[in-house]
Design brief:
The structure holds 2 protein chains of 2 kinds. By secondary structure, chain A is of the alpha+beta class. Chain A has 9 helices and 4 strands. Chain A has a two-stranded antiparallel sheet. Chain A has a two-stranded antiparallel ribbon with strand order 3-4. By secondary structure, chain B is mainly α. Chain B has 2 domains: 125 residues, no CATH class; 63 residues, Arc Repressor Mutant, subunit A. Chain B contains 9 helices and 6 strands. In chain B, the strands form 2 sheets. A 3-stranded antiparallel β-sheet of chain B has the order 4-6-5. Chain B has a two-stranded antiparallel ribbon with strand order 1-2. In chain B, β5 and β6 form a beta hairpin. In chain B, α8 packs across α9. Classes of the chains: A alpha+beta, B mainly alpha. At the A-B interface, α1, β2, α5 and α9 of A face α3, α5, α6 and β3 of B.
Chain lengths: 185, 263
C-alpha cells in the first residue's frame, strides 16, 4: 500500500477516537477519492501495527471495529494525567453484568435467582447508562419482563472482539466442590 | 442433677460426636457482620465465604445464634436497606430448616419434593460459577481504567437536558397565578407641592396683620397664574370658615378680606 493511504487510515483512526470498521474506513477513503479494497485497508492496518511496534500506540480489534489506543504498559502516567478516576464497579454490579454476559438474554428475575438478592433498578440503570447492556426483548411471561443482553460497547470497553472471547464460564467442579459442599451442608 | 442429664440428652449429635459447646471462634460479632454485609454482594456470597475461607461446618454453626446476629444488625439498618436484610434472613431461615431436618431422624424422602439441602447446594454451585466469572471479568483490562484510546476526536459536549414534567392544567394555573400577582414594582413619585394652601393662609394672615382689609386681587401673584388664584381662593375660604376673616363683596367683582381678629 502506498504511504499516503496508510497515513490516511492512521489519520482516520486517530481522528475517530472510536473503533472503525473496515467498511467504514473504505467509505471514508472513497469520499476522499481513494478506492481501496477491504483487504487493502487491512494491509494498511497491518502496516500501521508494524509501525507502532516500537511506540506507545497499538491498534486493537474490538467488537465495533479497529481502534487506536495507548498500550496498557504506557497507561499509568495517563491515569495521573486524568485525575478523575473512572468510577469503581461494585462487586454486586460485576456479578450482575457477568450473569447477563454469560446467560443472555436474561430477565432481572433470572439474575436475582442466581445471585440470591434483589437486583436494584439503580444497578440495571447504571449498566444501561454505561451502554453495557440493552433491552433486546420481553419474556413471554406474566408482566412481560425485559430481557437484557450485553452490547458491543461492553466488549469494546473490555478490549474484546466478541462474546466468545470472554473468559470461559467456570464449570461446576464436580469432584472437589460438590464434595466439600455436601460434606459441609 | 436431673436437669443436667436432660440437657445432655438434648445435645445434638454431630458427625457422631455430641455437640456440647459453642465453638468460640465461630461466634460472629455484630461489628464483623456489619463489615461482612458491606463486603459481600449477598447472602450467597457470605455463605460461600463462610464455607470456603473459614472452613465452617454449617451443622456445627449455631444457626439460631447467627440469626440473632442478623436481627441485631437489621435493627441498625436504615429502612431503605431493609430489603437487603430480608434476603439475609431468608438465607438464615433456609439454614435453620436444613439444620432442623438434619437433627430429625432420616425419613424416606419423597422424590417429588426436592431436598432443601441439595437445592441449596445447587444454588450455591450455580452462584459460584458466576461469582468466579465476575471476578475474572473484573480483572479484564477496562477502558479508561487500564488502557486509554488514542484519540484526536472532538470532545463530546454533553448538554444536559432536564425534562420538566408538567400538565397543561398546571401550566395554566401557574400562568394565572403569575398574572394575578400584584405589581409591586410600580414607582410612585412624590412631587413637591409648589403652591400650598397652608402657606398661602400664612401669607394672607401676614398681610392682614399689617392692614385690616385687603382686596383678593392684591393677594395674588401674577406669576402663579390660574393655579395661584385657586390656591388663594381656597386659603380665603379656609380662613373664613375658621372665623379669621370676613369675605366681603360689593357691587364690584372684587372680593375683600377683612380681618376679624381686631374686631
Amino acid at each position: 500500500m502506498n504511504i499516503q493511504t496508510v497515513n490516511t487510515v492512521e489519520a482516520l483512526l486517530f481522528g475517530a477516537g472510536r473503533p472503525l470498521r473496515l467498511s467504514e474506513i473504505r467509505g471514508l477513503l472513497e469520499s476522499d477519492g481513494v478506492i481501496a479494497e477491504l483487504s487493502d485497508i487491512k494491509k494498511c492496518i497491518n502496516e500501521l501495527e508494524h509501525r507502532y511496534e516500537a511506540s506507545s500506540l497499538e491498534i486493537i480489534e474490538v467488537a465495533s471495529g479497529f481502534r487506536l489506543q495507548i498500550k496498557q504498559s504506557y497507561s499509568a502516567p495517563i491515569t495521573h494525567l486524568w485525575n478523575e478516576r473512572t468510577p469503581r464497579i461494585s462487586k454486586a454490579l460485576m456479578e450482575t453484568i457477568s450473569i447477563i454476559a454469560y446467560k443472555q438474554p436474561v430477565t432481572r428475575g433470572d439474575i436475582e435467582d442466581i445471585r440470591g438478592v434483589s437486583v436494584s433498578t439503580q444497578s440495571i440503570r447504571s449498566l444501561l447508562e454505561r451502554n453495557w447492556i440493552k433491552v433486546t426483548g420481553f419474556k413471554d411471561a406474566p408482566g412481560r419482563p425485559a430481557l437484557y443482553s450485553t452490547t458491543k460497547e461492553f466488549l469494546d470497553d473490555l478490549n474484546l472482539k466478541n462474546i466468545s472471547s470472554l473468559p470461559e464460564l467456570p464449570e461446576i467442579d464436580k469432584d472437589s466442590d460438590t464434595q466439600v459442599l455436601s460434606e459441609v451442608v | 442433677m436431673q436437669n443436667t442429664t436432660q440437657t445432655q440428652l438434648e445435645f445434638p449429635m454431630v458427625m457422631g460426636q455430641p455437640y456440647e459447646t459453642l465453638p468460640e471462634d465461630l461466634f460472629i460479632p455484630p461489628n464483623a457482620l456489619e463489615l461482612c454485609l458491606e463486603t459481600f454482594s449477598g447472602p450467597m456470597d457470605l455463605l460461600l465465604y463462610l464455607i470456603k475461607k473459614e472452613n465452617i461446618n454449617i451443622l456445627e454453626l449455631d444457626v439460631s445464634n447467627i440469626t440473632d446476629q442478623y436481627i441485631k444488625y437489621i435493627d441498625l439498618m436504615d429502612a431503605l436497606q431493609f430489603e437487603l436484610a430480608a434476603e439475609y434472613l431468608v438465607m438464615a431461615a433456609t439454614l435453620a430448616e436444613i439444620k432442623s431436618r438434619m437433627m430429625l431422624p432420616r425419613e424416606i424422602h419423597d422424590d417429588e419434593e426436592e431436598d432443601p439441602k441439595s437445592a441449596l447446594i445447587k444454588r450455591l454451585q450455580e452462584y459460584q460459577r458466576y461469582k468466579l466469572a465476575s471476578e475474572k471479568l473484573a480483572l479484564l483490562p477496562r477502558v479508561d481504567r487500564d488502557f486509554y484510546t488514542a484519540s484526536a476526536a472532538l470532545p463530546e459536549i454533553k448538554i444536559e437536558k432536564k425534562e420538566i414534567f408538567i400538565t397543561k392544567e398546571e401550566l395554566a394555573s401557574i400562568f394565572y397565578e403569575i398574572k394575578s400577582r400584584p405589581d409591586l414594582k410600580l414607582s410612585h413619585q412624590i412631587d413637591f407641592e409648589e403652591l400650598s394652601t397652608q402657606e398661602r393662609i400664612q401669607i394672607i394672615m401676614e398681610i392682614l396683620a399689617k392692614r385690616n382689609v385687603v382686596s383678593f386681587s392684591k393677594t395674588l401673584r401674577k406669576a402663579e397664574g390660574r393655579h395661584g388664584v385657586v390656591v388663594t381662593f381656597l386659603a380665603s375660604l379656609e380662613l373664613a370658615k375658621d372665623g379669621h376673616v370676613e369675605l366681603i363683596q360689593n357691587k364690584t367683582d372684587e372680593i375683600f378680606l377683612k380681618s376679624l381678629r381686631g374686631a
